[in-house]
Write a structure and sequence with these properties.
Layout lengths: L3 H12 L2 E8 L6 E8 L2 E7 L5 E9 L3 E10 L2 E10 L2 E10 L4 E9 L5 E7 L4 E5 L1
Antiparallel strand pairs: 1-2, 1-10, 2-3, 3-4, 4-7, 5-6, 7-8, 8-9, 9-10
Length: 134
């Protein structure tokens, strides 16, 4: 049986986060309203283009890479094998979203796993590029 503290952590982890994003057209103009909702291994993104078309879809989470290292540590007390695991602090969301009028947008966001902040770009099937921050 889970104690209350791990159970609370599990529930908070499964709930995910949601919030606003900024999608700024590189060609200039007004930022497009955008939002996200995180889930298990993915995030759902909604962006409204200046034309009024709403794009919606899921981006897949690619976790940060890590490495395992080991070394022999020697002191005047003797020797021992020491090991460690390091993980990077940047992961990515990648994928494509589709609009209610057929426009698609490919998105790649590089994310800092410690802060939860992400930055990247999206490109529509018409070629418009948006700088995206969340």
């Amino acid at each position: 049986m889970l104690t209350p503290r791990p159970l609370l952590f599990l529930l908070v982890s499964l709930a995910g986060c949601a919030g606003g994003m900024t999608a700024i057209p590189r060609a200039g103009g007004v930022p497009a309203p955008a939002s996200y909702h995180d889930g298990m291994g993915q995030t759902t993104v909604t962006i409204e283009l200046p034309s009024g078309e709403k794009l919606h879809g899921n981006l897949v989470w690619i976790p940060p890479g890590g490495s395992v290292s080991s070394a022999i540590v020697t002191t005047d007390q003797g020797s021992a094998l020491a090991g460690g695991i390091s993980s990077g602090n940047t992961g990515m969301y990648v994928g494509a979203i589709i609009g209610d009028r057929g426009t698609t947008m490919r998105i790649q966001l590089l994310c800092n796993t410690f802060t939860g902040r992400c930055a990247g770009a999206g490109q529509t099937s018409e070629g418009a590029v948006y700088d995206i921050q969340r």
